[in-house]
Amino acid sequence: MGEELSRTQRLWRWLKKPLLWGIPIGIFLAVLAIGAFQGVMVASNQNAFCFSCHLSMDTIVQEYKASSHYVSDDEVLATCADCHVPHGFIDKMKVKIAATADIYHMIKGTITKENFEEHRPRLAKMVWDDMLANDSEACRHCHVGDNFDLSKQPQRARLNHELMESRGETCIHCHTGLAHKRITIE
């Protein structure tokens, strides 16, 4: 019986040591936080997430669904995130944080379905400026290798693509309005 008591006392002494409990609890919480973070990142990169606001606010979803990025004979489809969310972690986080402004404006009612077209040129310019600044990184992420075979392109397109770099151009110079209607920016 005395030996049993000393085991209990030893167990309680061990349980009271915060470092011994802190390490496994800290690891568990870190894994839980990383898993939750990753889940949010994956969910917020799905078309359904994007559509949940844009379907009720503007015409962007309908334009995208009519584009070659949504409907393709090659079965190579681009999601909203493929074009609008960078693949690198730091740049992705910058875009995700900046996108919270959209939520703010939706809740506040600054941008609505009724006034979206008034704001659209400014918003589109921001996206196009980003694409120009990063040399259309999102386009080049998918349009590479078999997904960008110059030999399968008409002669004029092939020539223009071959001359892009020497002209200082990037994809967005010619392909604005591909997934969403082309608008005039003043």
TrEMBL record:
One of its GO terms (cellular component) is plasma membrane. SUPFAM superfamilies: Multiheme cytochromes. Binds 4 heme groups per subunit. The chain crosses the membrane at residues 20-43. Heme 2 binds at C80, C83, H84, H180. Keywords: Cell membrane, Electron transport, Heme, Iron, Membrane, Metal-binding, Transmembrane, Transmembrane helix, Transport. GO terms for molecular function: electron transfer activity; heme binding; metal ion binding. Belongs to the NapC/NirT/NrfH family. This is Cytochrome c-type protein. It comes from Photobacterium proteolyticum. The lineage of its organism: Bacteria, Pseudomonadati, Pseudomonadota, Gammaproteobacteria, Vibrionales.
